[in-house]
Amino acid sequence: MKREGIAVGRTALLMVMTLPFIYPFVFLVATALKPLPEFNQDSVGLPAHATLENLSAAWNEASLGPAIVHSLIAVGIAVVLNVALSSVAAFWFVRHRGRLATSLRWTLIATMAVPAPVFIVPLFVQLSAWGLTDSLVTLGVVFAAWNVSFGLYLMYTFIDALPHELTEAAEVDGANSFQLLRSVLLPLSMPAMATLAVLTFVWSWSDLLISIVLVQDPSRRLVTPATALLADQYSTDIPKNAAGVLIAILPMLAVFLFGQRFLVRGILAGVGK
Amino acid sequence: MLEALYVLPIVIVVGVALLLPVASVVAHSFTDWQPGYGSPWVGDRNYAELLQSDQFHQILFNQAFLLLGIPIWTILPLVIASLLHERVPVPGVFRTIFFFPATISPVVIGILFTFILAPTGPVNASLRAIGLGGLTHNWLVDERLGKPVIIGVLAWATLGTGVVIFAAALSGIAPELFEAATLEGANWWQRLRYITVPSIRSVIELWIVILLVTLFVGVFPWIYSLTRGGPGYSSTTIDFDIYQNALTFGYFGLAAAEAVVLLVIVALVVGGGALVGRARRSMA
User: Fold this and answer.
1) Which residue of B has its CA nearest to A6?
2) Stated pTM of the model
3) Residues B89, A6: C-beta atoms closer than 8 Å
4) Domain CATH number, residue A215
């Protein structure tokens, strides 16, 4: 039977198709390691005299060290808050299906369709009036609010699909709702919570619009805007900018390697699979 | 009653960070909004100004032009997912390679592409190397090329997510269907056309709705990094213009009206998608 074998032509075609997805990263690393004079001579080839100077220049000029710490703080707050708010609310909504609770649930989930460009300007104006801009805590809370609609959807779908016998048995044993949440549902929901944590991390870390508007103080800048602004200043020093981009991508590579299956699971949950 | 505490925090966070701002933007779209000062009522002046301005017409044209990307952003991942579906070794490795860009920040990918598309970058260098030097361009500062280049970069960036979604949908189709079709002599294209596409139609429609929404609310980082909306307004999108009007030029009232227009467009796209999905289900 033919179908048992490997389709050689098709495999070769796919390998060719991966080239545009591999080459940009090869080019990025080569450029980031290339001295500027060499880049100006030959901007495409592999570096003949590789140097780490671009990396240290980008690191210092864009203050990427502090920026990574700022990102970790804001994104960390977002992850913890989103997972906590979504799971606890999903637990409540699974147990309350009255008309009021159902419409509240749909209202919260529907905020997924509110675009950041719509809410960011009035939010900025309001937070400025309250003196809450340029704060990593505020930014973390806004990141959480921005992702909590998806979080509620994901956690509700997951908890709702758990066998109801589990909660019933615990209730027969006299568990109150807090004990039920803490000892039965949260441990069972770990896979969904991990998925939500990884997605919230990636989405918040990648954001530009929200962080560039809400944090304008250069000394509190996050990694993504810091990288964007390094490449921004009509700078023609491509190797240095490439080094900044490389530094911004490396943490994402680590997240990707550890969290790929959670990312895939989360994306598929988003399309109802 | 104490159980309401489970749901109160999420209501407060969403209310303060999302719902109040939406109410505020609608209210302020009818004012000459000067944050920190008064906001005198101006009726529909912001909307009139917006709808009469040449820039906004150009922006709407740009958004319409970007719609041309939708077939590309749909067909490419569909074809790759279906190529990966049968008789290919290590499909997971291929999928990983295509999927990695989905993890990286759009603005960071955009900056990477400014290097690749630079006048002396690899795209022009390879055109010269194969004797097509006449086709080299300064890709990002050419009025005619900005939008096609954005479509191309988005094709690169959205491919992996599309492949993941379509590959999962394909794995839900009974293999017997493909086997029977192969025995009947159907080639790869016929199997794609008559088995794959009809079987996963609802997923394809959902993907198109996701792309449409992204096109109106999520292109800001791409425009910011690739073209800054230029040259002139030739590649400005609504979301980029809202940012620019409010935070660069200080036209807060105009930006508010523009945000309301955007909100209506998104509601129409999402509502339309839901209606199509419901009609399809009730026919099935």
Assistant:
1) B87
2) 0.90
3) yes
4) 1.10.3720.10
